[in-house]
């Protein structure tokens, strides 16, 4: 280890190795909440959801049936590496400026704080290991720190990191070249915000973090983020790209150094494949319907006028909704006039599967080929003969003579012959930077002229490509010795809404109680899904670990608890009430503001519903109902909507799905893996297991 901290590259390499232990957010976690019922239930009869819903989980098998396994070991591995790095840097002789070394340590401290946050939100109090553990360490002397003791350490670690100057070599706000995924000042503030909001919540509060203290920290976090060019994503999409700014945000690649997406604070994990693992059975290549949104979630979306359509239920099974008579909700047309986020997040019966602007197929745009790299290119009578000669072979097309028309479907077609075929062709959409590329399916060998079509519509929308003078760069795999002849290279546009979703009994996407590819509830997930996605063309989006909207909501929660809904909180340039913060979220969504003067209990109900809608399928609901200690009220079962069609008439029938047995108090926290607990019992006699989980 001493050798590592004398060498620049090895020191940086060890810091890099500290990363990568945060559990990746997963849309499937929604199936462990009242957000959805998973299509695996009753399909296989032995899925992890069957075990979870039946309550057949122990501390020994929890990892097999939860959405992220048991991340205890991974998170402590990350913490250990951060501890080693922080200690090593105290005596490091590596040749680097003091500013750069301080920046590295700030990254490690923030990363360690993030790992501890991920631990305590799952397990509650955990052992607080502040230094590297030697082989001869006496584990019998260790003990579990309380939740709030760990939060104190998290806040302190982030404060220490934030004392390092905001410079390129220090601890900065900006994301510089090749720095996507590293800790920044924004992450430190986001970690503090979530940690103190949880610490003041009913499940974890012990008086250490009052709502007043949480408000102070949340206000400073929000002030700093807003003062450094973080803002809610509000770009209005073209009609064929997405329904609204909220929908476009979740299919926008955040890996852009904050040049376009200024809402994302930290991204973990790559691009989702909603179309495949939580998709529509009418999509070629779809494997399962995944988490199917519940009727309770549907009922929580307000009407566009800001009124709640459903005020509760007259029966214990949620089959008799209490309709708000002034809301405009029509039970015979239940999906009309709802919050715009509903249309961005849910596929419902009658929803348009695709988006378009009208019109028919346009005259094709003909392209020629030009500048090449590691590729021999000759042209004769309109036929291009291309042979790759080295790594990263590519060729650029001629620019568009005029802009595309903006229709929904855009395809690149050409005729080709090839003895070798082309593996994983990649197309870059100028400018050639910032991840503006998509990799497509292999082009197989063909001895005769063959027409080939690549659907580039999703990328055209995602990268806002198609202006006059825009061009493509086509990369032909990464190997030399590949050949292909091309002719008649064209881009063609066409529009079309596509047939609407049919979840009614007997429809294309019909509800089913047994088929894993079909919805259990009458609904499918649309959030994160780009309708252009399909086999060979994944254009789906991303689940952010932290984004600015959550910080607004964290601030609103602590502020209404400590000061009431309408009292302005001042921090630096910030002057905002809890209601103002929620209304900022609602304005981006296209919803009317919450009224002034709501009683605290009424505001709490509206706030919790707003959080449920805004952060749906982003893993927050799972933890929110636990920290609020309402799990037994929310998660005992969910309902669905079975629709039957007779002629042109539809009848809507609510139904209850199987009750769940995973709502007792022990389910408020993860169990620690029993093998880990047994080790500590054997070493020192102390039982670290969380309440109710001792096998």
TrEMBL record:
Family of this protein: Belongs to the SusD family.
Major subcellular location class: membrane
Cell membrane recorded as keyword: no
Domain of life from the UniProt record: Bacteria
Entry keywords, A to Z: Cell outer membrane, Membrane, Signal
Subcellular location: Cell outer membrane
Keyword Signal set for record: yes
RagB/SusD domain ranges (all copies): 264-354, 503-693
InterPro entries the UniProt entry points to: SusD-like_N, SusD_RagB_dom, TPR-like_helical_dom_sf
Every SusD-like N-terminal domain range: 35-167
Protein name: RagB/SusD family nutrient uptake outer membrane protein
Provenance organism: Olivibacter ginsenosidimutans
């Amino acid at each position: 280890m001493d050798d590592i901290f004398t060498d620049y590259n090895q020191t940086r390499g060890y810091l890099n190795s500290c990363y990568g232990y945060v559990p990746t957010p997963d849309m499937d976690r929604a199936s462990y909440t009242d957000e959805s019922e998973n299509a695996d239930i009753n399909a296989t009869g032995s899925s992890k959801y069957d075990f979870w819903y039946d309550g057949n989980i122990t501390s020994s098998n929890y990892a097999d049936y939860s959405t992220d396994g048991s991340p205890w070991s991974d998170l402590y591995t990350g913490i250990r590496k951060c501890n080693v790095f922080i200690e090593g840097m105290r005596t490091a002789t590596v040749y680097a400026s003091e500013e750069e070394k301080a920046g590295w340590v700030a990254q490690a401290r923030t990363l360690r704080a993030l790992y501890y946050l991920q631990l305590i939100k799952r397990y509650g109090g955990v052992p607080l290991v502040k230094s590297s553990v030697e082989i001869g360490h006496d584990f019998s002397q260790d003990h579990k720190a309380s939740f709030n003791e760990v939060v104190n350490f998290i806040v302190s670690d982030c404060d220490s990191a934030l004392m390092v100057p905001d410079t390129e070599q220090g601890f900065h706000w900006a994301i510089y070249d090749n720095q996507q995924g590293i800790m920044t000042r924004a992450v430190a503030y986001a970690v503090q915000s979530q940690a103190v909001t949880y610490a003041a919540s009913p499940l974890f509060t012990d008086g250490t973090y009052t709502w007043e203290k949480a408000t102070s920290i949340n206000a400073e976090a929000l002030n700093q983020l807003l003062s450094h060019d973080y803002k809610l994503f509000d770009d209005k999409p073209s009609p064929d790209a997405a329904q609204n700014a909220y929908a476009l945000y979740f299919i926008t690649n955040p890996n852009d150094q904050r040049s376009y997406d200024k809402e994302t604070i930290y991204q973990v994990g790559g691009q989702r494949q909603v179309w495949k693992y939580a998709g529509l059975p009418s999509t070629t290549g779809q494997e399962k319907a995944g988490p199917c949104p519940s009727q309770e979630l549907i009922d929580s979306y307000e009407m566009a006028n800001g009124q709640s359509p459903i005020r509760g239920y007259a029966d214990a099974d949620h089959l008799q909704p209490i309709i708000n008579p002034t809301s405009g909700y029509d039970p015979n047309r239940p999906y009309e006039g709802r919050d715009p986020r509903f249309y961005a997040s849910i596929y419902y019966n009658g929803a348009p599967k695709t988006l378009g602007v009208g019109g028919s197929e346009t005259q094709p745009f003909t392209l020629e080929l030009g500048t090449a790299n590691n590729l021999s290119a000759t042209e004769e009578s309109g036929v291009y003969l291309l042979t790759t000669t080295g790594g990263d072979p590519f060729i650029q097309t001629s620019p568009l003579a005029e802009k595309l028309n903006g229709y929904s479907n855009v395809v690149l077609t050409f005729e080709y012959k090839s003895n070798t075929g082309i593996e994983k062709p990649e197309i870059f959409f100028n400018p050639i930077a910032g991840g503006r590329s998509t990799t497509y399916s292999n082009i197989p060998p063909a001895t005769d002229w063959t027409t080939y079509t690549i659907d580039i519509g999703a990328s055209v929308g995602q990268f806002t490509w198609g202006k006059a003078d825009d061009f493509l760069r086509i990369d032909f795999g990464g190997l030399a010795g590949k050949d292909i002849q091309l002719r008649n290279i064209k881009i063609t546009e066409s529009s079309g809404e596509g047939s609407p979703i049919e979840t009614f009994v007997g429809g294309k996407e019909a509800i089913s109680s047994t088929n894993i590819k079909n919805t259990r509830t009458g609904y499918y997930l649309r959030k994160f899904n780009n309708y252009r996605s399909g086999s060979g063309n994944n254009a789906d989006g991303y689940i952010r670990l932290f984004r600015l909207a959550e910080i607004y909501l964290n601030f609103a929660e602590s502020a209404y608890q400590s000061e009431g809904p309408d009292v302005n909180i001042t921090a630096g340039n910030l002057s905002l009430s809890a209601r103002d913060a929620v209304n900022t979220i609602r304005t981006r969504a296209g919803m009317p503001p919450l009224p002034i003067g709501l009683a605290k209990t009424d505001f709490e109900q509206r706030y919790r519903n707003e959080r449920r809608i805004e952060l749906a399928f982003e893993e927050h609901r799972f933890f929110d109902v636990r920290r609020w200690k309402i799990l037994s009220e929310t998660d005992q079962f969910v309902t669905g909507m079975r629709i039957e069609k007779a002629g042109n008439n539809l009848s809507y029938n609510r139904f209850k799905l199987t009750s769940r047995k995973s709502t007792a108090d022990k389910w408020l926290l993860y169990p620690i893996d029993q093998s880990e607990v047994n080790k500590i019992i054997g070493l020192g006699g102390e039982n670290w297991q969380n309440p109710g989980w001792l096998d």
